[in-house]
Amino acid sequence: MFKGLRPIRYFGRDVWPLVEGGKGVSATNHASSGAWAAAGGIGTVSAVNADSYDPEGRIVPQVYHALTRRERHEELIRYAIDGSVQQVERAYEISGGVGAININVLWEMGGAQRVLHGVLERTRGLVAGVTCGAGMPYKLSEIAASYGVSYLPIISSARAFRALWKRAYSKAAEWLAAVVYEDPWLAGGHNGLSNAEDPLMPQDPYPRVKELRETMREGGIPDEVPIVMAGGVWNLKEWENWIDNPELGQIVFQFGTRPLLTRESPIPDDWKARLTTLEEGDILLHRFSPTGFYSSAVRNEFLRNLEARSHRQIAFTKEALGDHSFQLDVGVGGKRNYWVTRGDLLHAREWFAQGFSEALKTPDETLIFVTPDEKAWIRKDQADCMGCLSQCAFSSWADNEKNSTGRLADPRSFCIQKTLQDIAHGGPVDRNLMFAGHSAFRFKSDPFYSNGFVPTVKQLVDRILTGD
Predict the structure, then answer these.
(1) How far apart are CA 180 and CA 252, in angstroms?
(2) Would you say 457 and 32 are in contact if contact means Cβ atoms under 8 Å apart?
(3) Do the beta carbons of residue 31 and residue 94 sit within 8 Å?
(4) Is the pTM of this model over 0.70?
(5) To the nearest 5 percent, what fractions of the chain are helix, strand and coil?
(6) For residue 275, what is the enclosing H or E element?
(7) Is CB count within 10 Å lower at the N or C end of the chain?
(8) Could you report the per-residue pLDDT of 305-329, keeping only the tens digit for each?
């Protein structure tokens, strides 16, 4: 047992202070989270468009039949609730009453509050707590408390927690089980970088977590309420000075990336194999997500294509103004109201000659150049939108009365639901978004995984408990 590591009290039982990160669309399911709980930790079912099963145990494809986005959005919510309930029930059964099962939701996912109500109503007594981030989930405490369930907000700064505490959480303080600090430079998936923070200048998490604890103390929250360190946690030896540290209070550690490479992990074998080949720097912190948030993923062909698409971009005016005195004559058909600089006109002609012959408008008065095939599938993905986000830059969907953000759909982004469903169910790993934390390159050098070894979740938890 690693020095100083002791069980904590959670959900009425003693559990290891080790949390399995709840990873997006079907990347964490009942098998991995149930096994993590059975090993004595806190497993996390992803309640983001989770898989459901038919009577024979086969995954039910999430096919959308409705003609309108609003109707497809209703289909999505039904899929989300049914799938999450099945995942929780199966995880709880696997856990055997050991450890605990949390669910994870994204506040900015489409219908988040309806999904949360639907899942908690049908899983009473099975779910210990709800982790929630990707936005400012003010109503999380109210919803969780109404079902007698703990809540664990995911934040990336003390400032964000202070706002949540003052506005809402202080009214349901008894149900606050922990605060998850998700490091915006180290964690995989969507990250909470603010406009005041530089994505290229990572900050040491220690002073940020210390500030978070001080903010919690100001609110009267006892040190026994843990802070969960999430992002960049590979082994406990590297975090030894955080354990039993009076400046930080009780610390729990979340593991998001390492549980991907286990036998119970539901991700396809090609994805697991790709993880073992990554080099340091292969994870890109980018801003192509239709959520508008920064996010971290493997810099594969999919992300490189998005980078290239944005590089093939020029600004325009609708009439000749200043340097924008050259009429664009490629990519826009017979339209004559695009005025660009001379340099951008030459760039556009060069891209056109290379086959990027279609110009698509962005919400920022720019044009990007793509191939005809790329234009066709961008337009199809936009048209097929089912409202998986509360607001989507790619399709301009919003969960409001008009079902619109009021902005032009942005072709520099992508359909996140489509790509995450595809990679999780066997789609090509290089042509889909592959979320991963920035420590994923360590699979290649960690002797625990030598000779292609893929551990069970129990073996991984036992390894973590030694400090390695």
Answers:
(1) 9
(2) yes
(3) yes
(4) yes
(5) 35, 20, 45
(6) helix 269-275
(7) N
(8) 999 999 999 999 999 999 999 999 9
